[in-house]
Amino acid sequence: MSGEVLRLAAFTDTPEGGNPAGVVLDARGWDDARMQATATEVGFSETAFVVGGAGAALDVRYFSPVAEVPFCGHATIATGVALGDGDWRFATAAGEVTVAVADGEATLTSVEPRVEDLAADDLGELLAALGWAAAELDPALPPRVAYAGAFHPVICARDRPRLGHLDYDFDRLRTLMQARDWTTIALVHRRAPVTFDARNPFPVGGVIEDPATGAAAAAFGAYLRALDLVTPPVDITIHQGDDLGRPSVLRVGIGAIGGIRVSGRAVAMS
């Protein structure tokens, strides 16, 4: 139905887990104001809008409750599952993202990723906004800014308890992120060689924290590859949302070259 808002939880197989996303499969003719108002009313961290295209090639835009973002992983997974089995191509503001769907599970392949240095002044301000000390960082996983459709600083905690206690300065972090065009902050702890825990503050979207962040997962996969912290081809698992009571599982495929794959299930919410 034109204009119907579907509500799905992504990166989970239960409605109580994962990250909720709104999906509008037919938003042709909608202007920015209507999409923003809809995303604000839905209130999830992201709502995806299919605004055009034909067949398996679709034009997709993403809005948080307060602003448009170039790409959103969990809403892409949710949109793919809502569309149904098949191979889809999403034209997004970040570029083309392919989505393969089968039996309630979707795999997106990101745009070509890249990884950049994080300026020392920005790192200092970021840690101050988070309330973290430099000594709490994992020296084996140095801070960087990674991109796979959106920019995410990657900050890795030495210990899991540091990740478990997240109490940041919302306005201070939002101001820094807006100035640097960062979408979320990827806070990560390496649980095992290919298993990670993550949290993602999202103040620029008007959301304290994202329970599952596919775009950040893709960026993190690019980070691991660029810094030779894994040996491609390799699959990693990211656990996110546990600290929020919405456990999520993101599976990330890292090849030697090209886009990063992120896979997960999505289910309708009641």
Furnish the topology, listing elements before pairings.
Blueprint lengths: L5 E5 L8 E6 L7 H11 L3 E9 L2 E7 L4 E2 L3 H11 L2 E7 L2 E8 L2 E5 L4 E4 L2 H11 L13 E4 L3 E6 L3 H5 L5 H11 L5 E7 L2 E8 L4 E4 L3 H13 L7 E7 L7 E7 L6 E8 L2
Parallel strand pairs: 2-3, 4-6, 11-12, 13-15
Antiparallel strand pairs: 1-2, 1-17, 3-4, 4-5, 6-7, 7-8, 8-17, 9-10, 10-11, 12-13, 13-14, 15-16, 16-17
Helix pairs in contact: 2-6, 3-5
pLDDT average, as an integer?
97
Record field, number of beta strands = 17
What is Rg? 17 Å
Strand content: 35-45%
Strand order of the largest sheet: 1-2-3-4-6-7-8-17
Between the first and last Cα atoms, what is the distance in angstroms? Answer: 18 Å
What is the global morphology? globular
**Contiguous uncertain segments of 5+ residues:** none
Strand count, sense and barrel status of the largest sheet are: 8 strands, mixed, barrel
CATH topology of the largest domain: Diaminopimelate Epimerase, Chain A, domain 1
Class from secondary-structure proportions:
alpha+beta
Percentage of residues in helical conformation: 10-25%
- The appropriate CATH architecture of the largest domain is Roll
Describe the protein in words.
- The protein is of the alpha+beta class and 270 residues long.
- It has an 8-stranded mixed β-barrel.
- α2 crosses α6 and α3 packs antiparallel against α5.
Relevant terms:
single chain, 270 residues, alpha+beta, Diaminopimelate Epimerase, Chain A, domain 1, 2 domains, eight-stranded mixed β-barrel, 6 helices, 17 strands
